[in-house]
Amino acid sequence: MADIESASLQFAVMGSPVAHSKSPRIHTLFAHQFKHRIEYTAIEVDPGGFAQALAQFRAAGGRGLNVTVPFKLDAFRLADHLSDRAKLAGAVNTIRFEPDGTVFGDNTDGAGLVHDLTKNLEVAIKDKKVLVLGAGGAVRGVLAPLLKHHPALLVIANRTVSKGKELAEEFAHFGRIEACGFNELKGKRFDIVINGTAASLKGEVPPLPENLFANHALAYDMMYGDKATPFMDWAALHGAERIADGLGMLVEQAAESYLVWHGVRPETKSVIAALRKGG
What we know:
The chain is α/β, with parallel strands linked by helices and 279 residues long. The chain has helices spanning 2-6, 23-34, 50-59, 72-78, 84-89, 109-120, 137-147, 161-170, 230-237, 247-262, 269-276, and strands at residues 9-15, 38-44, 62-67, 81-82, 94-97, 103-106, 129-133, 153-157, 177-180, 190-195, 213-221, 242-244. It has two domains: 2-107 and 250-276, Leucine Dehydrogenase, chain A, domain 1 (Rossmann fold, 3-Layer(aba) Sandwich), CATH 3.40.50.10860; 110-245, Rossmann fold (3-Layer(aba) Sandwich), CATH 3.40.50.720.
């Protein structure tokens, strides 16, 4: 019995690709704060192989999973029970294996973004004009948490306008939300501009007008890397007063996952600082 109690609890992140995931390092740093014994690994999963990988990890004694692209929709479908925020997001990034054998699915992405904005960056969302670029899964997951902070207006800008308008209609009961194409942004200015497109991965920037940023505006890219993203570089040249990448969001969504699994929320600022230093 003592051996069982002293064994490390098993957790992992599944996705493709995940070789360079920072999640194992993040959760190891979290566990040190509470002296929890965990083992957290990154598992590369082949396309179409998520259900099998999940079942194998669970059978081997796994307690929980983080799920990243491209398997968040698969995780959503495989969960027996869903949190309210997972239902709204239509995707799952956190799985907890329950003692009764069921699978609980949650989504911590939106909470992670809002926590990074309001706590780490000390940006008030209330009464601000917020622009979100993109209308994919990453954006869908953050709309309700942003709107619950009562911005004056939230605009979704997307290449395919109909996709953005579908999201705006779906989330309209949470607050004032509109959608438009990138070409319709000319003449409009925003306090917070969040890039939720995959353009940065391709070294590109969405086609944005030059005078997009209001005074004291924040430009935020949900992507992160060792250097500034193309969107961050563009924002610096076009009037954004503050610029941030998504590393804080990554750590904050991880902290929310840790809370789902362990019942305690880790301190995050020291972990973000350690990752910035390459630690």
